[in-house]
TrEMBL record:
Name of the molecule in the record: Bifunctional aconitate hydratase 2/2-methylisocitrate dehydratase
All residue ranges annotated as the Aconitase B swivel domain in the record: 178-405
PANTHER family documented for this protein: ACONITATE HYDRATASE B
Start and end residues of each Aconitase/3-isopropylmalate dehydratase large subunit alpha/beta/alpha domain: 410-894
EC number assigned by the record: 4.2.1.3, 4.2.1.99
Matches recorded under InterPro entries: Acnase/IPM_dHydase_lsu_aba_1/3, Acoase/IPM_deHydtase_lsu_aba, Aconitase/3IPM_dehydase_swvl, Aconitase/IPM_isomerase, Aconitase_4Fe-4S_dom, Aconitase_B_HEAT-like_dom, Aconitase_B_HEAT-like_dom_sf, Aconitase_B_swivel
Record flagged with keyword Ligase: no
Gene Ontology terms for molecular function: 2-methylisocitrate dehydratase activity; 4 iron, 4 sulfur cluster binding; aconitate hydratase activity; metal ion binding
Domain of life (superkingdom): Bacteria
Keywords assigned by UniProt, alphabetized: Iron, Iron-sulfur, Lyase, Metal-binding
Aconitase B HEAT-like domain ranges (all copies): 6-162
One record GO biological process: tricarboxylic acid cycle
């Protein structure tokens, strides 16, 4: 069988699923297709021409290389194809974005080809995805007197690739579709259990919301062919939980417009709205695709005649509707007035959704084109030795005389690119910054690889200190889907220059360590900026931003990111933490007390949480920063004391050294370079040359929150509140309850200790609690299953050395084996303890699952519907989030314990200690 025949068979298989042919990325397949095109009488010729024109992926895919070369042959007259004239070949090259297409265009433009050279130049003037090899050729040709090169550079200097694009329409008509009531998690738009299909855009698109919702969207489009469908989170925030490029891709696939007639299933310009706006990292992803995200504010707190908030019997503010966005409502986005209208009625100012920068993204079809366009304009102007004309909206610069800097403002100023020397910027300023650490995770990694290919990148930027590709989200089960995706991903990233969790050559032991934990270890400077393909990229050193796969690709390719400097909320602590409390309880209490202090307003949303937590090591402090994703914060920064930071850096050094010892370093010795940088940073702190990062005393914050530890008397549980009569209050992470609320009798069907929220001490707590129960009752019996998944292998090795792992083994009914990884996901559990492979496990929900309808008590981060547990007829699945001792005891008892049972079980256990720092920062 030929590769082509295999492809045809795959197409037939996909037809059965209602799918079109998968886009071609293989040079081998496309070469066979090209051979058939050249054979005029070939039976498959007509079909092959269509595949070549309409179904080949652009950028730096292997297929794009073969396509570009064949188009070159056609343009030069070496091959004649009736369906593809030389002019059409130029048009096809113009849609291929970069890489081999740029090389071909430069080959033709810079040769003595007369009209062909001029036509190639005209296409090149529209292109922005050029890299050093391309710009070096242009520069050399220009200096050698090539007139075509000069014309191209002059066009670039004027940014004609942008200025000649059509202007954004003054009015954009939309018709609303309520995607859900309350917060809409990206799991609704791109379910975690379908992560395996994310790089197959059409297939993955079928999992968005529900088939019924998809039919409703199609019906709205049929009724309103001249309008865009706007997905709305009614009474909630759109896109909470993660950036999820696949979620935005799905929304664009169903409601957006095609980016190119010659590139299948890549849509742009989605429009989304939320009563409480759009989650920050999700909004970044919307910008990537040239879309619009609107803060609708269509429900507000009801007030009396004196302006006081009216509350219900539960002391919660009553909301009243300002205007309706019910499904089928026709609205108008006016890009000139920056207002949203219903007919002639002005509803709300939406200028934040239509800033000058965002308007540029919309015009260019996405933010990447603007990022690369600015770089190519600067290059051209420098080469021509002229001043580049002002074409793009100037970056907003906010500089307030006499005002100090918050921690994030200091970090952004230190890493800023292109600002005047001596200029100090405050929150609200638009900044390009260099990125120090980049992380890619395994269920979005193939999309990141696609984005890198699409932007024609072939090697990691030399200014990135370190980058890591994880294997944690697919660690639980080595099934056929993982076997098909992960080796391909690891090979690509390894060759790109990223440190990979699995070596394509099989030289070192494959790692499944949780990406956030690894990034937390390889961040060796609290002044660092980190970008990671997961919402829980929230380090306890530096400032880290969870990002979509495209932003990760951009950071890997350019070593840069662009964003406004966020506002900050300062969080400090007072009082004394009680002996029977775990630090996870402090984390939950922070959310609860913040909401109480600000009358239900989440002041963390979209901002930096600057937490003054200096007495905890990075591993333990990570519990707080990790949770800030669920607080809807943009990121978090830990303010550490000097000695604490030094200890954290020493731990990081040791763990990086283990990675080196396992053979994970590459030819650039990235990991060794991180150790060298850590040593330098430690010396700076010890000598006082550069102490640990602190904000200025006169820094200005959006708000300041003081958490009273004296008020935390019982373990705190984040409850999805699945039966709340107000649907918008379900699955929000904002319902925090104490242990006594449950009366000691709420049934628990499964316990889970794992995910990025736990550290080594949590696993020691499991061991110690089991010892306590055995001492107190003479034996340990589980009335509900307990799943335990360490975040990293290092933790297991340390537990083995300290004697705790042996005790865990004693009471486990199952222990993972790297030699015999599971090939089938576990969905049914016995009442035993399972020691599972390091990785995300149940928290991710894409492989392992609790039984439908279960009540799960977990240490993980997500309580969204269907994530850890799905509903079943007559019973909702619910995932309650709590500390490790609460989870373990719940599994032993088969129910949530009483406070008395809890205190007895944790007696003598060294729970995570925390003492607020009293010295002035």
């Amino acid at each position: 069988m030929s590769i082509y025949n295999d492809y045809i068979q795959e197409i037939e298989d996909r037809k059965a699923q209602g799918l079109h042919p998968k886009p071609i990325d293989s040079a081998e397949l496309l070469s066979e297709i090209i051979t058939q095109i050249k054979s005029v009488n070939n039976f498959n010729r007509e079909e092959s021409v269509n595949f070549f024109i309409y179904n080949t992926l652009p950028g730096t895919t292997a297929a794009a290389g073969a396509k570009a070369q064949f188009l070159k042959e056609i343009i030069l007259g070496e091959t004649v194809v009736a369906e593809i004239t030389p002019d059409f070949a130029f048009e096809l090259l113009s849609h291929m974005k970069g890489g081999p297409s740029i090389k071909v265009l430069l080959d033709i433009a810079l040769a003595d080809n007369g009209d062909k050279a001029k036509k190639a130049a005209e296409v090149l003037k529209t292109q922005v995805f050029l890299y050093d090899a391309d710009t070096d050729r242009l520069k050399e040709a220009y200096h050698n007197g090539n007139e075509i090169a000069k014309q191209i550079l002059e066009s670039y200097a004027k940014a004609e690739f942008f200025t000649k694009l059509p202007e954004v329409a003054e009015e954009i008509k939309v018709v609303t579709f309520i995607a859900g009531i309350g917060d809409i998690s990206t799991d609704l738009l791109s379910p975690g259990n379908q992560a395996h299909s994310r790089s197959d855009r059409e297939l993955h698109g079928k999992c968005m919301i529900t088939p019924e919702a998809q039919e409703e969207i199609r019906a709205l489009q049929a009724q309103h062919p001249d309008k865009s469908v706007m997905l709305v989170a009614e009474k909630g925030t759109m896109g909470v939980g993660s950036s999820r490029m696949s979620g935005v891709n799905n929304v664009a696939l169903w409601t957006g417009k095609r980016s190119s007639p010659y590139v299948p299933f890549v849509n742009i310009a989605p429009i989304v709205g939320g009563t409480n706006g759009i989650s920050p990292i999700f909004l970044t992803t919307v910008d990537v695709t040239g879309g619009i995200g609107i803060d609708l504010k269509n429900w507000v707190k009801k007030t009396d005649e004196n302006g006081n908030i009216i509350r219900n019997e539960n002391d919660e503010p009553i909301l009243e509707e300002v205007y309706s966005v019910a499904t089928g409502t026709v609205l108008t986005i006016n890009t000139k007035t920056k207002k949203l209208y219903n007919g002639d009625q002005e509803l709300i100012d939406i200028s934040k959704a239509l800033t000058p920068q965002k308007m540029e993204f919309i015009k260019a079809g996405g933010s990447y084109a603007i990022v690369f366009g600015k770089k190519i304009q600067t290059f051209a102007a420098r080469t021509l030795e002229i001043e580049a004309p002002v074409v793009f909206a100037p970056a907003k610069e906010v500089s307030i005389e006499g005002q100090g800097l918050t921690a994030v403002e200091k970090i952004f100023n230190r890493n800023a690119v292109g600002i005047a020397q001596g200029k100090v910027l405050h929150a609200g300023s638009d900044v390009r910054v260099e990125v120090n650490i980049v992380g890619s995770q395994d269920t979005t990694g193939l999309m990141t690889a696609q984005e890198l290919e699409a932007m024609a990148a072939t090697v990691i930027s030399p200014i990135v200190d370190g980058a890591y590709q994880s294997g944690c989200h697919t660690a639980s089960v080595w099934d056929k889907k993982a076997q098909a995706n992960i080796p391909k991903l690891m090979k690509f990233m390894n060759e790109f220059g990223v440190i990979t969790a699995r070596d394509p050559k099989g030289v070192y032991h494959s790692m499944t360590d949780v990406i956030h934990k690894v990034l937390n270890d390889i961040t060796i400077d609290e002044w660092a900026i980190i970008i990671g393909g997961d919402s829980h990229t929230r380090m306890s050193k530096g400032v880290a931003f969870g990002a979509d796969s495209g932003t990760v690709a951009l950071a890997l390719a350019t070593g840069e990111a662009s964003m406004p400097i966020p506002e900050s909320v300062k969080v400090t602590f007072k009082g004394t933490m009680k002996e029977h409390m775990d630090f996870r309880d402090v984390v939950h209490a922070t959310q609860l007390q913040m909401l109480q202090q600000f009358d239900g307003e989440n002041v963390f949303q979209g901002r930096i949480i600057e937490v003054h937590i200096g007495t905890l090591l990075a591993d333990q402090a990570f519990t707080f920063t990790d949770w800030t994703a669920e607080m809807k914060a943009k990121a978090s920064i830990c303010i550490s004391q000097d000695d604490t930071l030094i200890q954290s850096l020493e731990i990081a050094k040791n763990r990086i050294q283990i990675m080196i010892d396992k053979g994970m370093d590459n030819h650039n010795q990235v990991l060794q370079g991180l150790i060298n940088k850590a040593n330098k940073r430690i010396e700076e702190i010890k000598t006082g040359i550069k102490p640990a990062l602190t904000p200025d005393d006169n820094a200005k914050y959006y708000a300041e929150v003081v958490i009273d530890l004296d008020l935390i008397n019982e373990p705190m549980i984040a409850d999805p509140d699945v039966n709340n009569v107000d649907v918008s209050k379900r699955y929000t992470h904002d319902t925090i309850r104490d242990l006594t609320y449950y009366g000691g009798d709420k049934k628990v069907d499964l316990g889970f200790v794992g995910s990025c929220m736990v550290h080594k001490d949590d696993l020691k707590i499991v061991s110690q609690l089991l010892k306590n129960v055995e001492t107190q009752t003479g034996k340990v019996e589980f009335k509900a299953p307990l799943v335990v998944a360490a975040p990293t292998y290092n933790i297991i090795d340390e537990l083995k050395a300290e004697g705790d792992w042996e005790y865990l083994q004693k009471y486990s009914g199952f222990e993972f084996s790297d030699a015999l990884p599971k090939s089938t996901a576990r969905t049914e559990y016995e009442n035993i303890m399972y020691l599972e492979r390091p990785g995300c496990n149940l928290c991710m929900g894409n492989q392992e699952k609790a039984a439908k309808g279960d009540t799960v008590m977990a240490t993980s981060t997500r309580l969204f519907q269907g994530r850890v547990v799905e509903d079943k007829d007559g019973k909702k699945g619910e995932s309650l989030l709590a500390s490790t001792p609460v989870v373990v005891l719940s599994a032993i008892l088969g129910r949530i314990p009483s406070i008395e049972e809890y205190k007895l079980a944790v007696e003598g256990i060294n729970l995570t200690k925390f003492t607020p720092i009293s010295t002035k920062q």
